[in-house]
Write a structure and sequence with these properties.
By secondary structure, this protein is an alpha/beta fold. The protein contains 3 helices and 8 strands, in the order βαβββαβαβββ. The protein folds into 2 domains: 1-65, Signal recognition particle alu RNA binding heterodimer, srp9/1 (2-Layer Sandwich), CATH 3.30.720; 79-137, Signal recognition particle alu RNA binding heterodimer, srp9/1.
């Protein structure tokens, strides 16, 4: 029996749908520091499935085609990602420099994190945080 999860994968990996996966991969790398792990292209050469990493986390993404409408087009947010980084203020500065749309400035939270938020070009919300104190949330 194969190990679960497979080597190099966390137990839980979010899967986001994008209308233009290739363009989003470029943006996620430039603005948020994610690194490409795997890409599958369709017969037309467009990225159909991809995996990007940030440290030990993996985000999978794909293009469902057809009637799919991303959050930007639908006007609805169905969820968000919460990602821990070592230096939330430096991470925010990188995102800001790359032109990311901030939806929340860095701020200390009552549960012990310092957090900020961005909306990616297709409307998904990403929150990045660093832990300020030890102990439970």
């Amino acid at each position: 029996m194969s190990p679960n999860p497979p080597p190099g994968y966390p137990r839980v990996s979010p899967y986001l749908y994008y209308e233009d996966v290739g363009a989003m991969m470029d943006w996620l790398a430039r603005a948020l520091g994610l690194v490409e792990r795997h890409t599958q292209r369709g017969p037309d050469g467009r990225v159909q499935h991809a995996e990007m990493a940030l440290e030990d986390g993996v985000v999978m993404m794909g293009c469902p085609g057809g009637d799919f409408r991303n959050p930007k087009r639908s006007g609805q947010i169905m969820g968000s990602l919460y990602v821990y980084v070592d230096d939330v203020d430096a991470h925010c500065a990188r995102a800001r420099e790359a032109g990311a749309e901030l939806i929340e400035e860095p701020a200390n939270q009552p549960y012990g994190d310092r957090r900020y938020g961005v909306r990616d070009p297709e409307g998904h919300h990403w929150y990045f945080a660093s832990r300020l104190e030890t102990g439970g949330a």
